[in-house]
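Quick one: structure tokens for this chain, please?
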Amino acid sequence: MARRLLAVAALTAGLLTGCGDAGADGSEATGGPDASATGAPWHDEVTAAGAAGTVGAAAPCPLPVTFGLADGWRAAAVETPDPDDEVAAALAEALARRGGATLRCEVDGRAVTPGFLRVWTADGPDVAARQALEAFVGDGEQVTEPQYRQSRVGDLDVVEASWLSHRELRDEDVREWALAVRTGEATVLVEVSSTSFGEPLDLVPAYRLARDTLAATA
């Protein structure tokens, strides 16, 4: 129960809280990760963080993919709540499900920068990466200007999204990013989530590391 409450607390804190160019109409562009789409929305000029570990190969977050973990970031599995605990179940439904995907792992960067990387898996077994990502983005709060692009990372085809999300607390639009990849029989999404008063761009190095090191779990 304590671990479940910690996971819910981390999620709540986070919520209070990419190759070539893609058009503002959400059209897709393709190219490699080094296409150098500087500035918004992709900010490819931001250098990936150095890897201090790996997420996904084993506990605490066994996943269909692995990716590099930036220094100071910590991964934790998001546990399924006891269905008899109505409060925890309701919070999990609100915070750990979005657009047909379920939250599986949270990578907490708040020791070094204010935000998280969150790893989700699509609930449907045959959902394509682009389809899953569009559903995920579309289920966000006050989403505008969604844009998409596709690239190749190793043996994986990666679809990225970037969009603006309105934050009531600060009454401003902030940029967000996510990616989706299909591997084996699973579709995995990795989302960037800054805290309420964090600067989203500060999370891009860790996100870029995760994207550039994506690999299917052996």
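The mean pLDDT is 84.
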